[in-house]
Amino acid sequence: MSDAGSEKLPETFQDQLSWAWNHVGGVTGTILTTIPILAFVVGNAIGGLWPAIWFSIGSAVLVGAVQLLRKEKLTAAIAGLGGAVFACAVALVVGAAKGYYLWGIWVTLAIGCVLLLSVVVRWPLIGVIWSGTNLQGMSWRKDRASRTYYDVATMFWVLLCFVRYAVQSWLYGIDETTWLGIARVAMGWPLTLVAALVTIWAVRNVDRRRKLLAAA
Prior knowledge:
The protein is 79% helix and 0% strand. The chain is mainly alpha-helical. Helix 1 (13-24) crosses helix 9 (189-215).
């Protein structure tokens, strides 16, 4: 495997936690991404569907403006606003506030299924994405132990997606719109942070295997 362009992971657990937290978005990123969801929850509690829609879209516009002021990528601001608008459109089509979360629920299931399929066909996506992003090549697939590490990390993401889907689809089914919003936030960055740490564990172990095999 080539090291060209590879991203170096921190050595200590504290630094790894900081690395994972920054990749999740850090304090500012976490707050910004949750504001439109929380705004929708508040708007719906105050006046129903239409106030929730205007609260969510309005807050998404403000979040986009803050992202631009922080000199973040324009695509991030557009994606955030576009996601809020699309979720609100789905809510209007469904005719109920809970529809705001429907698209995210099904996307979560789809991602989980794709990740699971990647493990079944022996191309675990966590390994593919990390190696592709860091230009390390795919030779790790020839080493069973390395592939197993990436299998475990990918399956953790699968579990995360399926748990999110199960909880949120259940809340959707029983019309617990407020709790849907709370679950979306609570099962968002906290669980993603844990999954990022599992990914770090896998990457570091694969890197050790690579060095051992290169020295053999």
